[in-house]
Each structure stands twice: as C-alpha cells, then as structure tokens.
Design a protein that fits this description.
single chain; 448 residues; alpha/beta; Rossmann fold; seven-stranded mixed sheet; 41% helix; RCK_N; Ion channel membrane protein
Length: 448
C-alpha cells in the first residue's frame, strides 16, 4: 500500500500536461465564452423557473382527480380547478407546502415522486443559480476543454501574443480566419487575457515544452506561427514544433538575420527578419513615403488592397499571367514562387497558383475560383476571335510558334497584320510590350 502511494506521488511529479485530467487544466487552457449581461442572465433564470412552474401545473391539472382539498370531501365529480392546480404547484415547487391540497391516489403520488420532486429541485437550482454557477464553473470548463481537445483539427497555433503575435492574429482574422481556429500560447497572463477578450483559445505555459504545445493541439495544427520575444526561444520552439508536427507549416520571426539559418535548420518553412524588414521600410520612407503607405495597405487585409492567392482557372490555362484582369505579382509552380516576368511562367499550367492584388471591392476568392472571368474572356483579349483561337492553339501545341499582333505605323498609315515570329523589315523599329502572345509594336526607325 505504501509502495502504491509512492508510485502515485512519483507519477504526479513526472506527469506532463497532456496526462492530467481535464479538470486540472482549467487554469492552463482557457476556452472563450460569449459575454452575457447580468440582466439577461436574470431574465433567463426567471424564464426557466416559469417554465418549470408551468410544467408542474399542467402535470397536476392532467391528474386533478387524484388530488383533494383537506377542507372538502373527495368527489370524482368535483375535481381541482386550474387555480387549485396552480396554487398546489406554486407551494410545492417553492417548498412552502401548506398541506391543504394533497395527492391521495397511487398515480398522483407516483407522479409527485417521479416528476414533481425533480421539478422542485430544478426550480430551487434556478433560484439560487449564482451559487450553483460558481460551484459548477470548473466542471463546465473541464467539459468544454474535453470537447475542444477531441475536435480541434487544422487550426493555427500562435506562440507569443506580443506585438508580432497580436498583429499576425489580426491579419488572419482580417483575412476571414475564424478566431475559433486560432490558439495562443504565452507565459504572460496579461497577454492571454487580451487574447481571451478577442475570443481566442489560450494556453498558459512555456512553448519550448512539448507538453504545452501538445495541449495546444500542435500535432494536429495546419500552421504554427512562432513570434517569440527572443531568437533563442524562437529556435527552440520551432525545433519542438517541427518534431510534434512534421506536416505543419511553420512560420517563424527572428530579430537578427545571423540566426536565420538556425530557424531554417530547426524546420521553419518561412522566416521573417522583423528588424531588417522594419529598417527597409524606414529607409524607403525617407525618399518615398507613399510607398510605405501602399505596403501598409497591402499588408492590411481588412481594408483597401491585399495580396491574395488563388488557383488558376481552366480558362486561364495556356495564357500569360500578365494578360489577366487581376494584377498578378507571381506564380507558385510546384511549390516554388516565380516572378510574373520570368519566361518559364509566360504560359500558365494546370495546378499553378497566382499571387495577385485583391481589392475589398472585388469578388471573393470563391467566386474567382469558380471562374471569375466573364464569359468570352481569356488571356488574349487583344486578338480577334480567329487570331485568338490560333494563338491559344499555338501555345498549347508543342513546336508551333505563337501568333503575335503587329501594329505597323508608317507615315500616319496604320495597319494590322498577323505574323508568326516574322523578322522586322528594314526601316522599322520593334518595341515589345510583353512576352509571348502579347502585341509587338512596329514604328518607323531612323536610318543610321
């Protein structure tokens, strides 16, 4: 017996957070609750009490022949009135019990034992709800923690809720990410209170401890943001997170660029050097302040413009990203980001993803993925229908050169010809306005 107690004590010392019961995690893991005003709470309790009273009245009235008034002789032809049933239910649920009306049949007494007594208990619980709520808070939190841990999947874990972490959360929420899908891990109680006020799930603890990250569901997370206060903690958290979640996308912030390779080696997919990025913006602001304002606009998804990502639609395949209605900045092909002016992405392929500038006034990403281009639109709007079909066929057929439009100007006479890589004639000047499939302007060239 003594050995059993010693074994339990040692197990309690060595146990981590994930092995503790849910009731022991109430002070560590906080699930946000919606705010309810005191007036609404009182109104709801009164409503529940009236509901219990009304149910008791209906039950007594349905079996009114089984009750009798002690001041009168029981008579089957003279049962209790509705007022008598209301009176009996009121004095019974309030535990006053004057005893002037009592059940005397077996069925009425059975109903009192099975139904009226539980209603009486429920009525009392509603009346003293403040005390009961205080006593059951821990149990309710433990139940919510258990449910949350069982269903949390594909969420985002944010380590650190300082300036960087708070800004990252604001950017995600502004990009239509639900606060219920974000979990904040921090050791600062004040920071966790702010996160809780924002409707976020919070975990109090050191994120370098694997049990804390497990409690936050890092092993099931879709992405993990590391916004620690110092680079050493960022490296340790990244290393621990990568061990727990091999498939999660880890984005880490670092102060000094000298520590960038450590984060990469620890398993970070993307890194941000916060000090150097801020320094670049400060330097740019000295010469072109409007550029910094535009960058702030692009980095704020809830207003103005924002940088977004979407898949290439079937209508856009084979076309150039520079001919789309969207302002495309780059193409993600096979997990690699390629600039829009690179030759290898001049013809879009199935599976490519576009980085483009999105406006809050434009259709949402869902409508774009479903085919946001208007009927008849494609990546070659400058060509006539026959030329457009020829150009698209030329892009998709290997070994065939795409057709271009030449705009020829000679002494004020303008004409259009279709050519397939035709060399320039003497006396003309070639001016490229784009890549394959775009127009080539021909103008008069002065003789040397």
């Amino acid at each position: 017996m003594a050995k059993g107690r010693l074994r339990r004590r040692l197990a309690a010392i060595d146990s981590n957070l994930t092995s503790r019961p849910d009731a022991a995690l109430v002070d560590v893991l906080r699930i946000p609750e919606p705010f309810v005003s005191p007036a609404r709470k009182i109104f709801m309790r009164v409503l529940y009490a009236m509901g219990a009273l009304f149910a008791a009245v209906l039950i007594v009235y349905a079996d009114r022949y089984g009750y009798r008034d002690n001041d009168s002789v029981p008579d089957a032809n003279n049962p209790l009135s509705f007022l008598d049933c209301l009176y009996y239910a009121t004095v019974s649920l309030s535990t006053t019990g004057y005893g002037d009306i009592t059940p005397y049949t077996d069925s009425a007494r059975l109903v009192n034992v099975i139904i009226i007594t539980p209603l009486r208990v429920a009525f009392l619980i509603v009346l003293i709800g403040t005390t009961v709520e205080t006593l059951t808070t821990q149990s309710r939190q433990a139940l919510k923690i258990q449910r949350w841990r069982n269903k949390v999947r594909n969420h985002t874990v944010v380590v650190g809720y300082g300036t960087k972490g708070r800004t990252a959360v604001a950017a995600m929420v502004g990009d239509e990410v639900s606060p219920a899908d974000i979990v904040v891990v921090d050791e600062n109680a004040a920071a966790l209170e702010r996160a809780k006020g924002a409707g976020l799930v919070t975990v109090h603890g050191d994120a370098t401890n694997s049990s804390v990250l497990r409690l936050a569901g890092a092993q099931h997370a879709k992405s993990i943001i590391v916004a620690a206060d110092n680079d050493a903690s960022a490296v340790l958290v990244t290393l621990t997170a990568r061990e727990l979640a091999p498939k999660a996308k880890i984005i880490a912030a670092v102060r000094e660029s000298d520590n960038l390779h450590l984060l990469k080696q620890s398993g970070a997919d993307s890194t941000v050097v916060s000090s150097e990025t801020a320094g670049r913006l400060l330097g740019i602001a000295t010469q072109t302040p409007s550029v910094v304002e535009m960058m702030e606009d692009l980095l704020t998804p809830d207003a103005g413009f924002a940088i977004a990502e979407r898949e290439v639609t079937p209508k856009e395949e084979g076309g150039s990203p520079r001919h789309l209605h969207d302002i495309v900045l780059g193409v993600v092909r096979e997990g690699r980001l390629v600039r829009v002016d690179a030759p290898e992405v001049d013809a879009l392929e199935a599976g490519d993803r576009l980085l483009y500038i999105r406006s809050r006034r434009t259709p949402s990403d869902d409508s774009r993925r479903a085919g946001a281009q208007r009927p008849g639109d494609d990546a070659t709007p400058h060509l006539r229908p026959a030329q457009r079909a020829s150009a698209l066929a030329g892009r998709r057929r290997p070994g065939r050169r795409p057709a271009y439009r030449h705009r020829c100007r000679d002494r004020g006479v303008a004409g259009r010809v279709a050519a397939a890589g035709r060399p320039a004639q003497p006396g003309t000047d070639l001016r490229w306005s784009g890549g394959a499939g775009q127009g080539v302007q021909l103008g008069r060239r002065q003789a040397a």
